[in-house]
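## retry 2 of 3
previous attempt timed out at serialization; input unchanged, resubmitting
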Amino acid sequence: CAALLSLTGAEKELRKALKGVPLSGYRISVTRGTSAGMAGTRVHVIVSRGKAAARNLPDIVGLLRASSLPGEVRARAISCFERLGEAEAEVHGTTVDAVHFHEVGAVDAIVDIVSGCFLFEHLGAPRTFCSSLPGGSGEAWSAHGKIPVPGPATLALLRGAPWRFGEGEGELVTPTGAALLRAFDVS
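## retry succeeded, writing output
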């Protein structure tokens, strides 16, 4: 999201688009700074305190359909969540509609996905390419407890895509990031 925001310079447009999503309990923070001597943009979704509701795919699709997002953005965001739902259903041995998104259905993930899809479309939805992704290593905490890195849903989403096992420590590609890459039709 931060990289796309840096490319487009569309912060005002993004904020306006997000107001069209019937979702509350968050604010978006965009800052510019440096890390290791490199200038860049940071985007944080700050969620109000309180327990985030678990949502299923029909809940999220309904929320997105009720939005005033441009049609292409809405369709790409829905596609992203459908891919996440398919991966989670595979991992948990259930149906897509029965999957309850915990982390992914939370407000911050919806804002992340909508923002990424909006900015990608704002850029003109170019043909995209991605080098092999670092798989990470170790363990990460989820709503289901400790899981290996890369996580099972991330692996399902990256099936057929180039990635490197064990490079880097921690979760370097999340299910949300993998689903966005897939929704961007990365080659």
